[in-house]
Write a structure and sequence with these properties.
Layout lengths: L5 H18 L7 E5 L4 H16 L5 E8 L7 H10 L4 E5 L2 H8 L6 H19 L4 E3 L4 H15 L8 E3 L6 E3 L7 H10 L17 H16 L3 H9 L10 H6 L4
Bound molecules: adenosine-5'-triphosphate.
GO molecular function: 4 iron, 4 sulfur cluster binding; ATP binding; metal ion binding; transferase activity; tRNA binding
Keywords: 4Fe-4S, ATP-binding, Coiled coil, Cytoplasm, Iron, Iron-sulfur, Magnesium, Metal-binding, Nucleotide-binding, RNA-binding, Transferase, tRNA processing, tRNA-binding
Protein name: tRNA 2-thiocytidine biosynthesis protein TtcA
């Protein structure tokens, strides 16, 4: 595909290529399922992985998977038409997640976390069904650092997200190739290339998780003084100093005297 803004395209492609190399995200013979929600991030991920695939010395296959959670108005047909136009293999799985959430959700529990858990389970099952050993998700750099802050501020845990991780099913490796790409690069890329973004149509769509919103605001504020603040947080995740932490298990495993 021809992308508008060649410079931006190359920057994103190079960042994805670097992540693939740094974490060994894609290997010879992989069948990679790309989870495409119809949002800007996963469209970007799929298109960039396809461009890399065409140029890569290693051979791998791609297919796109979409979960229709059953929210009225979700336009999986728009996603399917775009992917068909660009020649991607694609499967849409219709589920009854909306009904399950309405029945099972306890008052006060987070809508998004139940929905995400159900979707993730369905994606693992589908990846296996289609013979895909990898599942690529569209989380980007901002997601990593916001999650890092959220876990520190509200959970009391020093963790972000894994760029590569074996799923609970023991079969599927989850990969996040957009780890080095900032959301502010994805927004103009998706817009400029007219990716047909569709809303998930869930009852809380757009009313993003308030705590995550707070983290976004905090980072924006900090960026006024230090524009590289998010990059610095990401670097911190790759530069852990166990001696200067309080985790006793970690001290034992690192044999710190
Ligand atoms: N309905 C879905 N079908 C397939 N994959 C999904 C679906 N919803 C989410 N995903 C996958 O999980 C990732 C993270 O989901 P999240 O809901 O946080 O979306 P997001 O950050 O808004 O990204 P996007 O712009 O791709 O929707 C998505 O980028 C996508 O890879």
């Amino acid at each position: 595909m021809e992308f508008v803004d060649e410079k931006l395209y190359k920057r994103i492609k190079n960042a994805v290529g670097r992540a693939v190399a740094d974490f060994g995200l894609i290997e010879e013979g992989d069948r990679v399922a790309v989870a495409v929600s119809g949002g800007k991030d996963s469209y970007t991920l799929l298109h960039i992985l396809e461009e890399l695939r065409r140029r890569a010395p290693v051979k791998y296959e791609l297919m796109a998977l979409t979960i229709d959670s059953g929210y009225p108005g979700f336009r999986s047909d728009v996603i399917a038409a775009h992917l068909r136009e660009h020649g991607f293999a694609h499967h849409v799985e219709s589920t009854t997640h909306y009904d399950i959430i309405r029945e099972k959700r306890r008052p006060g529990s987070s809508y998004c976390s139940i929905c995400a858990r159900l979707k993730r389970g369905a994606l693992y099952t589908l990846a296996q069904r289609f013979g895909c050993n990898k599942l690529a998700l569209g989380h980007h750099l901002d997601d990593f650092v916001e999650t890092l802050l959220l876990n520190q501020f509200y959970v009391g845990s020093l963790k972000a997200m894994a760029p590569r991780m074996l799923a609970d099913n023991g079969e599927t490796t989850v990969i996040r190739p957009l780890v080095y790409v900032e959301e502010r690069e994805i927004i103009p890329f998706a817009r400029g290339n007219r990716f047909p973004v569709v809303c998930c149509c869930c009852p809380v769509c757009g009313k993003a998780d308030l705590q995550r919103k707070r983290m976004k605001e905090l980072l924006k504020e900090l960026e006024k003084e230090n524009p590289a603040v998010k990059r610095s947080l990401l670097r911190a995740l790759a530069n852990v100093q166990p001696r200067h932490l309080l985790d006793r298990e970690l001290q034992r495993t690192c044999a710190i005297p």
